[in-house]
């Protein structure tokens, strides 16, 4: 025959007891307080750095240099809602990836954590020329 203690249902704590227990448990955490960000820290700047890093994963398939270093990205803006707008061009209006490359860039940037919407505008002014490439791109392409 089971003893009387086993047959009793546990009594739920009162709201005050539950709140007191939660407060006590919160004081027992092993987490250190979040450090204050350094002076001048701007979270939008850090997010913009991650957006540029995502853009740098996109390559013109005919040139072994990313589109950022090629100078194909003319403008990257982000609003307060973390929506990103990008103006970019291609090396030529006849570029065989004209339909694919902007979407590749949009998907790469959309994959950045904390970015909401991404709008890509393909522009042709000013026309791209080799002088728009970074020094790094020129070195990679032996164009010195």
Q: For the residues shown, what is the average pLDDT?
A: 83
Order of helices and strands: HHHHEEHEH
Query: Main sheet: which strands, in order across?
Result: 1-2-3
Query: What global shape is seen?
Result: elongated
Structural class: alpha+beta
CATH class placement of the domain at 43-136: Alpha Beta
Largest sheet: 3 strands, mixed
Helix run count: 6
| Rg from Cα | 27 Å
What's the CATH topology name of the domain at 43-136?
GMP Synthetase, Chain A, domain 3
Q: Point out poorly predicted stretches.
A: none
DSSP E strands, number: 3
Can you say what the CATH homologous superfamily of the domain at 43-136 is?
Fe-S cluster assembly (FSCA)
- Percent helix, as a range, is 25-40%
Distance between the termini: 94 Å
Strand content: 5-15%
CATH-derived architecture of the domain at 43-136:
2-Layer Sandwich
Describe the structure.
The protein has 144 residues and is an alpha+beta fold. The chain has a domain at 43-136: GMP Synthetase, Chain A, domain 3 (2-Layer Sandwich), CATH 3.30.300.130. The protein has 6 helices and 3 strands; from the N terminus they run ααααββαβα. The protein has helices at residues 4-7, 15-27, 43-55, 67-70, 101-110, 135-140, and strands at 73-78, 84-88, 118-122. The chain has a 3-stranded mixed sheet. The longest helix has 13 residues, at 15-27. It is elongated, with a radius of gyration of 27 Å.
How do you describe this structure in short?
With 144 residues, the protein is α+β, with helices and mostly antiparallel strands. It is 35% helix and 11% strand. Residues 14-24 have a biased composition (Low complexity).
């Amino acid at each position: 025959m089971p003893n009387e203690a086993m047959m009793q249902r546990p009594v739920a704590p009162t709201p005050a007891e539950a709140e007191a227990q939660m407060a006590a448990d919160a004081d027992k955490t092993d987490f250190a307080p979040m450090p204050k960000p350094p002076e001048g820290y701007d979270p939008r700047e850090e997010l913009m750095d991650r957006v540029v890093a995502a853009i740098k994963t996109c390559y013109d398939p005919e040139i072994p240099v990313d589109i950022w270093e090629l100078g194909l990205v003319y403008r990257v803006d982000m609003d307060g809602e973390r929506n990103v707008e990008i103006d970019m061009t291609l090396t030529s209006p006849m570029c065989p990836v004209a339909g694919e490359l902007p979407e590749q860039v949009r998907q790469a940037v959309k994959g950045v954590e904390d970015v909401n919407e991404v709008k890509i505008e393909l522009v042709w002014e000013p026309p791209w020329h080799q002088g728009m490439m970074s020094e790094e791109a020129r070195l990679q392409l032996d164009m010195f």
